[in-house]
Amino acid sequence: MNDEEYMRRALELAVKGRGYTNPNPMVGAVIVKEGRIIGEGYHEKYGQLHAERNAFKNCTESAEGATIYVTLEPCCHYGKTPPCTEAIIENGIKRVVVGMLDVNPVVAGNGVRILEEHGIEVTVGVLEEECRKLNKIFIKYILEKIPFVTMKYAMTADGKIATVTGQSKWITGSSSRENVHRTRHAMMGIMVGVGTVIADDPMLDVRLPEFGKAEEVTNKAPSNPIRIICDSSLRTPLDAKVVTTAKEIRTIIATVSGDSEKIQAYEEMGSEVLRVDALDGRVDLKKLVKMLGEMGIDSILLEGGGELNFSAIKAQIVDEVQIYMAPKIFGGNAKSPVAGEGIENIDEAVMLNPVKVEMFDGDVFIENEVIYRNRENA
Questions:
Q1: Dihedral, CA of residue 230, residue 174, residue 180 and residue 25, to nearest 10
Q2: Would you state the pLDDT for residue 72?
Q3: CA gap 251, 143 in Å, rounded
Q4: Is beta strand 363-371 parallel, antiparallel or unpaired with respect to 320-326?
Q5: Residue 297 half-sphere exposure, CB side, CA atoms within 13 Å?
Q6: CA atoms of 272 and 81, how far apart (whole Å)
Q7: What is the per-residue DSSP string for 137-173?
Q8: Helix, strand, or coil here: 43?
Q9: What's the distance, Cα to Cα, between the start and end of the chain in Å?
Q10: Burial classification of residue 5, based on how many CB atoms lie within 10 Å of its CB (0-12 exposed, 13-18 middle, 19 or more buried)
Q11: Mean pLDDT of 354-371
């Protein structure tokens, strides 16, 4: 096996931490000695051992003189755990192969420098693009201090999210819906508008009875995202599921209202009420994501209706759009996934760059990067 093959294995391991490490990155490590893998590990959960230390812990023999492959530059500072550079030096590693340098200013090349100062050979940039894609959430959050926002919607082949009578369950099949729940598990927050809460009374939790490989390895149940309700005038019903279960699953209601009586009622039931500046009479989404970032929330899955989706695009807070397209046609003047006032000229369109296309039992799944022609600072 060559460097790329061992790094690919490290990436496979790193993915097993998805949904458990936020706001830390997903990292995998593989230790190789004389052409044999003698240790593997990954960052399993926030606050626990990093990938390198888990790999050393799982070694079947001494790692002295071995090569370690790690998807992200080893940390060199004390945080929740001791520096991984120390463990690498102490275990007598001869060579370190790094997928990408850490964008965290506390590390940012210092880990490599320390290793080289101790006579360890370091190679950087093996499968760097794949390593960066794996931690796109971490990279944005560290550099900009605001959450990575993924807009998700399901629609028919003619771009409808409901029939003319408002029926929307279910547009896509069960495999697509299961993948949505896997995405919910991977994100720290999930955001909807109050209209969605009133119309659908959603739970906005993660339901994965058979969680697959991640559960088999980590033996941990899927985590529920923090529920964020955009409710400018506090219309969320007190008997809505997101309110009645707020003591079990963290729930934030973002509003511009100062109605102390309503606020107290939500807070007594366990919800957090977040006062946000208004923009055109509604919650200023740019200000909201900045506040959520300051609260330690690194990622948000936006499952809003057409109005909230358009407002989010207009505010330029969306980084990625996930589209599930069912092989169905509804026709008529039914709702579309992005509403609002729309644009007047084609050259004003927000462009999407498709980066992944998959099939889920007949449904087409398209993951897109969002390209803003003139992106403003958040």
A1: 150
A2: 95
A3: 26
A4: antiparallel
A5: 24
A6: 31
A7: HHHHHHHHSS-EEEEEEEEETTS-SS-TT---TTSS-
A8: coil
A9: 44
A10: exposed
A11: 96
What is the per-residue pLDDT for 239? 96
Tokens 């629609």 sit at which residue?
155
Place of tokens 């061992």: 6
CB 271 within 8 A of CB 254: no
Q: Give the amino acid at 129.
A: E
The whole-angstrom separation of Cα 206 and Cα 230 is 20
How far is residue 204's CA from residue 225's CA, in Å, rounded to a whole number? Answer: 8
Q: What are the DSSP E strand ranges found in the chain?
A: 28-33, 36-42, 67-72, 95-100, 121-124, 148-156, 189-193, 226-230, 251-255, 272-275, 278-279, 282-283, 299-302, 320-326, 351-360, 363-371
* pLDDT class of 376 with cuts at 50, 70, 90: low
CB 43, CB 25: distance < 8 Å: yes
Q: The whole model's pTM is what?
A: 0.89
> Per residue in 243-272, pLDDT tens?
999 999 999 999 999 899 999 999 999 999
Length of the chain: 378
Point out the catalytic residue in the list 40, 52, 303, 367: 52
Tokens of 153: 């919607």
**For residues 277 and 228, what is the distance between their CA atoms, to the nearest angstrom?**
16
Residue of higher predicted confidence among 210 and 69: 69
CB-based burial of residue 269 (10 Å sphere; 0-12 exposed, 13-18 middle, 19+ buried)? Answer: middle
Q: Is the alpha carbon torsion for 150, 143, 348, 311 positive or negative?
A: positive
**Tokens matching residue 203:** 């739970």
Task: Give the pair of three-digit tokens for residue 195.
Answer: 């209209």
**Token reading at 112:** 């490599």
Average pLDDT, stretch 205-222? 58
In the chain, the percentage of residues whose pLDDT exceeds 70 is 94
Q: What is the pLDDT of residues 137-154, one digit of tens each?
A: 999 999 999 999 999 999
Q: Tell me the two tokens of residue 290.
A: 């900045």
* CA 171 to each of CA 158, 325, 363: distance values in angstroms, whole numbers, following the listed order: 12, 8, 9
Backbone phi, psi, residue 83, to 5°:
-60, 140
- Is 52 part of the annotated catalytic residue set? yes
pLDDT-derived band at 104 (thresholds 50, 70, 90) equals confident
pLDDT at 214: 41
